[in-house]
Design goal:
mainly alpha, globular, two-stranded antiparallel ribbon, Farnesyl Diphosphate Synthase, 70% helix
Length: 296
């Protein structure tokens, strides 16, 4: 399969849905909605919602509410980027080639836009019109997966570990713990939510969970490498920011070439976990390979 075509097609579908469900910039409070849309519709690879869709496809079903479930992950991801860019956190000036949200709308509005996006993620998964036909027990399980992956035990916890590690001499185990949570848990939630929505068996869910954990690690290693090797034009933000903030990364421990090799090993292990699936899981396999070959 052509993974580029697959990703572009799914991205168009995701973007269309996001545009439909997000309040118009002309709707009061207009500045809040404009700020939300500024970051949500600024582009991006949409990897997390696409992973949820691909996981459902691997189970060979098209469950009700799948697009709402998938796009809830993009709302969470976008809110986390807005907050992560704030002066009190990573203090970034650019995101996806554009000024960061707080540079355009101010710190207070950026915080509130992030808050609103976070809340809307759970609204999507609970709206009767968007989730019509979804079994109520399964729906609650999906909402719990989203909360677990994005909250104190998942992404937010990882962000705390990351902040606390700045300018500290952490070891490799501590670095892996940071990224298992900060990056890995939302990717894990994406794959699991797609599989759960599609009615995956326990074995299928276990295999996909292992796959998700492996590609989550590969994704972060690839990000660390790109932060060292990428240009501002490629990344859409300034490179070498990790070193400037005193953050240890995978290239710190392995070197750039060693980190690339480690990421490739994670991808191979992830693909191996899908051996019980047929061709329906090919998008998941190709996404795993794409993660380490991307330029941004």
């Amino acid at each position: 399969m052509n993974i580029k075509d697959y990703l572009e097609h799914k991205q168009v579908e995701v973007d269309r849905f996001l545009d439909q469900v997000t309040p118009a910039a002309t709707l009061p409070p207009t500045t809040l909605h404009e700020s939300m849309r500024y970051s949500l519709m600024a582009g991006g690879k949409r990897i997390r919602p696409i992973l949820a869709i691909a996981a459902a496809e691997a189970v060979e079903t098209n469950p009700p509410g799948l697009m709402a479930v998938a796009c809830s992950l993009e709302f969470i991801h976008t809110y986390s980027l807005i907050h992560d860019d704030l002066p009190s956190m990573d203090n970034d000036d650019f995101r996806r080639g554009k000024p960061t949200n707080h540079k355009v709308y101010g710190d207070a509005m950026a915080i509130l836009a992030g808050d609103a996006l976070l809340t809307m993620a759970f609204d999507l998964c609970s709206r009767p019109d968007l989730m019509k036909g979804c079994d109520p027990t399964r729906q609650v399980r999906l909402i719990q997966e989203l909360a677990y992956g994005s909250g104190h035990a998942g992404m937010v916890g990882g962000q705390v570990f990351d902040i606390q590690a700045e300018n500290r001499d952490i070891d490799l185990a501590a670095l892996q713990n940071i990224h298992k949570h900060k990056t890995g848990m939302l990717i894990r939630a994406a794959v699991r939510m797609g599989a759960i929505a599609a009615g995956a068996t326990d074995r299928q869910l276990n295999d996909m969970t292992g796959y998700a954990e492996d590609i989550g690690l590969a994704f972060q290693v690839a990000d660390d490498v790109l932060n060292v090797t990428g240009t501002r034009e490629e990344l859409g933000k300034n490179p070498n920011t990790d070193a400037e903030r005193g953050k240890k990364t995978y290239p710190t421990f392995y070197g750039v070439d060693g980190a690339k090799k480690f990421a490739d090993e994670c991808v191979a292990r992830a693909i191996g976990r899908l051996s019980s699936f047929g061709q329906s899981a090919d998008p998941l396999r190709e996404i795993a390979r794409y993660i380490t070959s991307r330029k941004n």
